[in-house]
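Encode chain A's predicted structure.
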Amino acid sequence: MPWSQTSPMDQKTQFIADYLRRSLSFVELCEMYGISRKTGYKWVSRYLTNGPAALEDQSRRPRSSPTQTPEYIVAALIEARQRHPSWGAKKILTLVHKKHPWWPLPHRSTVCDIFKRRGLVPKKRNRRRIGHPGKPTSLTTAPNNLWAADFKGEFKTRDGLYCYPLTITDGYSRFLLACQGLHSTAVDHAKPVFTRVFKQFGLPQRIRTDNGVPFATNTLARLSRLSAWWVRLGVIPELIEPGKPQQNGRHERMHKTLKAEATRPPAATLRAQQRKFNTFRDEFNYERPHEALDQQTPASQYQPSTREMPNRLPPLEYPNRFELRYVSANGGIRWRSDWVNVSIVCAGEYVGLEEIDDGVWNVYFGPLKLGRFLERYMRIEDAYGRLNRRR
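Encoded structure for chain A:
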């Protein structure tokens, strides 16, 4: 036999039924149900006034609050906000206080809550959160497996102009491939430096950088114009985690030496500063022993890459199972007569789509995975967005 279960509402209803039968006195009835006479009279009064629905539990929220902002103050604050919609709570409070200095005005946070409840605060547009692949895990076992690139902190030469030193090193041998002072961190200034280095030393397998311009942007896979060019050359861009320069520690350690020996004091002009950089690079590579290399010089451990830079960019190659789509000038592709945004960085190139489930496709730019295309929703999600949210 199953256990019988009764709810508080059932007990209240049975109490009222027994009360209406008049079989017991009110005191006996309350004792039988284990309640006080005050509670019993309350239930009876509610039932006789509003019927059975009144026996339901009612809200215990107080009808008024002693700390509630008076309505006349709320009305004055809202009126001032409507006349000055761009003013914040502090300015509105100052304005109302000048007109009514004796009013007990609320705190700024309370005014902000009042404006939010009345819809007087515009909603902020949610910025797109770009995922990150996480801590780089590639190993450096030979020269040109991994290069590191970065801009050492900018500084002014004595003519008052800023100098942005672009540095490139080989991760295995610590060989300083380039140290070029530039006027800015723009792609148009950095790309010629990489072109010269690629032609002189060949192509590496990967290049590790931070997440700043021009190495990364807030697009799919954080691809930039510069890193997209690397991918076209067969070089995989690799990013450290934001705010963790220790993941590129060898390169950062070189920056400390560079700053001490070549930028203090700064030269008179950028050209003179470049001569100091060239002198430092020669000494760093060919004369200065390195403790991590058993007191050998970086030049003794480095040899150029066997992968030469091509005169023309080769086309991106994809497996036969991939669906290819051309990225138009507006950064989108056509999919079943619909337009799907990819990235303006990939404009003029083909991307490859690999179906991994029904209506679910991985999107690649050459060997680099950009994201995941959900055909049901007709959008491309960042490849690392889910991983970033889990963290």
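The CA atoms of residues 206 and 236 lie 5 Å apart.
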